[in-house]
Amino acid sequence: MDRLRIMILCGRSSRHLYVANALCEAADVLAIVQESGSEWSLRKVLRTTLRPDTFFRKVWRWLRDRRRYYGNPEAKFFFGSVPPHLSHPELVKEVPHINHPMVVHLADELKPDLITVFGTSLIRGELLGKGRLGMVNLHGGLSPEYRGADCTFWALYNGEPEKIGCTLHYIDAGIDTGRLIAHVSPEIRPDDDELALFWRSVKESARVYEELVRRLAWGESLGVAQHGKGRLYQVKQRGLRHELRVERMLRDGLLCNLELGLRVKWFPANQSLSSRMSASEAQLQAGAMPDRAGGLS
Fold first, then answer.
1. What CATH number does the domain containing 228 carry?
2. How big is the CA angle at 195 (ends 194 and 199), to the nearest 5 degrees?
3. DSSP 3-state assignment of 33?
4. pLDDT for 202-231, tens place per residue?
5. Looking at the domain assignment, is residue 158 inside a domain?
6. Residue-wise burial string across 203-219, b where 16 or more C-beta atoms lie within 10 A, e elsewhere
7. Residues 24-51: pLDDT tens digits?
8. Which of 104, 163, 199, 268 is buried most deeply by CB count within 10 Å?
9. Residue 98 lies in a domain
């Protein structure tokens, strides 16, 4: 098989569009599914509005992100001067939420070889069994040690910048607990902040995601079970005191003198392949692959 037939389930931010565009280059994409967020249950509304701690936490995060994202730096990081876009908008299918029966029906109708995921809500139920080769997710942390939300931030908070990165893994019923396919750790620069490190991790991971899809099309077997549960981080755990500590650690030189370049680690199902490096991986390690930002129109 030359190219896999895939479904993409992704979010709407610039980083999600960037990864979706990368996957479009590596496979025959049947559909790009995005959540509209139009279905809000009464329980969710009451939980958000009637609990003061939840309400004020959400307001604080909104104000923080308004400041951090002023001027849309994420769009500029991933697309340069080109407006963020999907290279194949005609393939977009909007659904109220990712576990809606419409998505299951679409998977049954299209029968993709693989379902690729980045930036959706937690996938549950019948959808987990779809895709001839299963479902793969791009997670913004190095599983199993960093599962859940804000993993770049927590690696900085814990004084472990060498453990910043992304994981490609198969999806199971847990949260970022499926079989490991690859770890992607970015170059770390002395003047980086959380967002720069996270976005660089995602940009490099998009290239590795492409590589994965091609390797699976060639029949390569990848993926090993995670050893241990690591730690699951939740959005609600991150507060102002944590933010201030990370800001102080960065000012005090947490990222100085590390000399950490791009690192990509694959997890072959056949361990005899563990020492084999593909040509693309070698280029990634050497930083020789061209930048994709701004070049997708």
1. 3.40.50.170
2. 125
3. strand
4. 999 999 999 999 999 999 999 999 998 899
5. yes
6. bbbbbbbbbbbbbbbee
7. 999 999 999 999 875 555 555 555 556 6
8. 199
9. yes
